[in-house]
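Hi team,

As requested, here is the filled-out complex form for the cytidine-5'-monophosphate run. I kept the field names the same as last time so the parser does not choke. Let me know if anything looks off before we queue the next batch.

— J.
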Amino acid sequence: MASLTVRKLDEDLKASLRLRAARAGRSVEDEVRMILREATEGPSAAPASPARSVPQPHRSRTSAATTLPRVTLIIGGGIAAYKALDLIRRLKDRGIHVRCVMTRAAQQFVTPLTASALADERCYTDLFDAQSEFDAGHIRLARDTDLIVVAPATADLMAKMAQGHADDLATAILLATNRPVLIAPAMNPLMWANAATKRNVAQLARDGIAFIGPNSGEMAEANEAGVGRMSEPLEIAAAAEAILRPRATGPLAGKTILITAGPTHEPIDPVRYIANRSSGKQGFAIAASAAEAGADVTLVSGPVDLDDPAGVRVIRVESARDMLAQVETLLPVDIAIFAAAVADWRVANAGDQKIKKTSSGMPPLELVENPDILATVSKLKQNRPPLVIGFAAETQNLIENATSKLKRKGCDWIVANDVSPASGVMGGDRNTVHVLTLDKSNVAIDSWPVMTKEEVADALVAKIAATIA
Ligand code: C5P
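And here is what came back:
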């Protein structure tokens, strides 16, 4: 098999390869492998995009963020290095991509092979590694990450960081980075208490380095105890996550919100279904707006052609019964908003096989009523969300029908909108709504002017925030 030397490619090609690799969060060699694999096997050979269910750090309202946060884990040379291997798993459990770097001393305790296997990516060890340095590897490793974690951070490594040394890959990365750095010191209690270490700790803190630990406890050395034990992997992973995914702020911070959106598809047979014209845009806009307001949002959506809103956990379902089943597993929540246009009926005798055309006429379709998700949740004795909001899409007698729906279904608010064909609401980008709120037996009506669906979402979220404040 022929070998390919990337170093011999022309500069423009190398530059575009580097860019592609950085965007995909891969090394240049892995990117080249990916391109070759795609060229021979087709684009499906590329690995699937990261798990959808992982909540993403908030970016923009329109872009569905798809990249996992990335940590470069620098493993220093101490007995606690074995715990860094567990840390790799703990970070990955939290949906964080991990790339490992080991100092020479660390390799006396654990092997790069183990770290590579756990991280699913090559572990980097050498500053002058021909394979990675052709593309300025230490600079890429320093920047192509969201956070650098040093665990264990030995007294020696901390001293080098405080002084700005760059005589190996780990220290070169730490000097070249413009990303946040979190260190987990681990050393003998006397080394931690030493005046030189204290000076270095103070310097590093001034330089903006974040610390986790050290903890107090028994040392690896027999009969020694004190402050110097590296924090546990779970603690370090939590500290890393707190930096990567800062706690939400905003008027709905700390609130859990469940939203349904889109139509449902009710099967007639494996290839046909009953559906409606709902686009899901209003429900998705509410989810995006609630996430921007700091809420922890889960969106249960029927089949729609929309990207996941940033920072929202999206669960996609097909039928009304699937939607109800998901909703029930997500309770309790603080607020439930049922914006889905759930099909009222489903086919009782849906075929397991495609129904064939026969000469004996058309097959009868018997319809049965679907569960009413809004009414079911509104009338729960246990786990009823404190605020339940329904939607009423009407083509005539809007307020009258919405008022009776509010009372009949047992929810707290109804967002009523006119979906007659002339309104252009179904599938369109604008909406005119009236928010009906029930206080004891009095119905108050808040009528809003015509707005975009995003503006309606923002106004609804603001009204919710004002109500629960
Ligand atoms: O009765 P109607 O379909 O007009 O009610 C609309 C409201 O009820 C919406 O909030 C919708 O999401 C909800 N609904 C539901 N389950 C159904 C039917 C409607 O949750 N089966």
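Two things worth flagging: Residues 58-244 form a domain with the Rossmann fold fold (CATH 3.40.50.1950). Confidence is low (pLDDT under 50) at residues 44-66.

Thanks,
J.
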